[in-house]
Amino acid sequence: MKFLGPLLAAPLAALAAPILEARGEAIPGKWIAVLKPESATKILVSTMENILGGVSPKHTYKIGSFQGYSISASDAVINSIADLSEIAYIEPDYKVSIASLRTQNAAPWGLARISSRTPGTSEYKYDESAGEGTYSYIIDTGIFVDHPDFENRAEFGANFVEGSNTTADENGHGTHVAGTTGSKTYGVAKKTNLIAVKVLNAEGSGAVSQVIAGLQWAVDDATQKQRIGKAVANISLGALRLLSSSVNTAAAAAVDAGLFLAVAAGNNGLDASLFSPASEPSVCTVGATEADDSRASFSNWGSLIDVFAPGVDIISTWNNGSTGIISGTSMATPHITGLGAYLLALEGPRDPIALCERIQTLATPDIVTKSLSKNNILAYNGQA
After folding, report:
1. Cβ(242)–Cβ(23) under 8 Å?
2. Which CATH superfamily includes the segment(s) 98-378?
3. Residue 121 CA: distances (Å) to CA of 104, 105, 349, 382
4. What's the half-sphere exposure (Cβ side, CA atoms, 13 Å) at 383?
5. What is the pLDDT of residue 114?
6. Is 79 helix (H, G, I), strand (E, B) or coil?
7. Above 70 in pLDDT, residue 2?
8. Is residue 48 predicted with pLDDT exceeding 80?
């Protein structure tokens, strides 16, 4: 007992923030530093610039309680940053890539399927409100906004692709996703407004740091323009194996800020808990089905799947002004993004988690074969 006093009086050494091991395809020399919620971003910027030799962080993030930076730095510099008391953790930046009623006759099979309890119909039945007055942020490769099927409802928002100075969709994936979300012929919510947030390049690849920057822009834009409660966002990304704490935390902060997020489960045929942002519980994670209502063989599965939607041989708009047919959980996800916008217009504002729950309540239960998922439910718009 004699030594208790001196031991308690000794100053405790500050513990360095953890530097997380790579859990995906890390980009050499690039990192994401996440701050503790109580840290002051503006004060820390100057400190970071000093450590980085006068170079500013590439991106500064603030989405609700989520704050951080994307930076380029050596291992030695990263160790110095980890010593700052304001840092919660540091992880590598990762590479990511691409995941009154009316009746539309001869509709794409995915649309027809989500407006019927049973397969085989060719009609898409929907309320004439059709997502009018809502805003759908497509965080992807961009959108060919001049496609005639968008009827002047698509616009460029922002570009976060490093080295890119074009607003164009140079890949086609983002235009396809936007088309399923809200185009006249191929869209679930045929009157929603579409906003392109470009985070992936012509090859359909990019970095987690760009995705977070795009997500932050979407939250800020929706907030500043008073669109919260009328806005949804789509993130159709995939990776060989990516579990990112920073992208999950950013996604959770976006949901907390009021932005509904539909995200692709991934195309690996594995448990979605191994991938981000699909593993974040607060987002609406979407698996893919075939036309016979079986889980697509490529679709990830598991307890974190919120709902399934059509994702095989989906026809939609393309970046050449025509159409394309592709498959993936990337194609299933915009069915849910569009359905979210559709329900916001039809039934009024809901917070993001309640909106995902509403989609689950409407969905057709116990119909997806080989689902390997707790939520064996297929999206349905309630209008048949």
Report:
1. yes
2. Peptidase S8/S53 domain (3.40.50.200)
3. 11, 9, 30, 15
4. 25
5. 92
6. helix
7. no
8. no
Burial readout 354-367 (b: 16 or more C-beta within 10 A, e: otherwise): ebbebbeebbbeeb
CB 17 within 8 A of CB 88: yes
| CA 368/CA 309 separation, integer angstroms | 10
pLDDT at 5 over 70: no
Side-chain-side CA neighbours of residue 237 (13 Å): 37
Q: What is the pTM of this model?
A: 0.89
Could you tell me the pLDDT band of residue 40, with boundaries at 50, 70 and 90?
low
What confidence tens digit (pLDDT) does each residue in 83-93 have?
888 889 999 99
CA-atom Rg of the chain in angstroms: 22
Q: Read out DSSP for 66-129?
A: EEEEEEE--HHHHHHHHTSTTEEEEEEEEEEE---EEEETT--HHHHHTT-SSTT---EEEETT
- Torsions phi, psi of 103, nearest 5? -125, 130
Q: Distance between CA atoms of 304 and 284, rounded to whole angstroms?
A: 9
Q: Where are the domains of the chain?
A: 26-93, 98-378
Q: Which residues pair with 268 in a beta bridge?
A: none
Dist CA 14 CA 302 (whole Å): 40
Q: Is residue 324 classed exposed, middle or buried when 0-12, 13-18 and 19+ CB atoms within 10 A define those classes? A: middle
Q: How would you class 5 by CB atoms within 10 Å of its CB: exposed for 0-12, middle for 13-18, buried for 19 or more?
A: exposed
Alpha-carbon gap, residue 84 to 78, rounded angstroms: 10
| Token couple for 254 | 């976006």
- The residues annotated as belonging to the active site are 140, 173, 330
Question: CB count, 10 Å around CB of 53?
Answer: 8
Q: How far is CA 99 from the centre of its chain?
A: 10
**What's the confidence (pLDDT) of residue 22?**
73
CA 371, 377, 380, 384 dihedral sign is positive
Amino acid identity for residue 62 in this structure: K
Superfamily of segment(s) 26-93:
Peptidase S8 propeptide/proteinase inhibitor I9 (3.30.70.80)
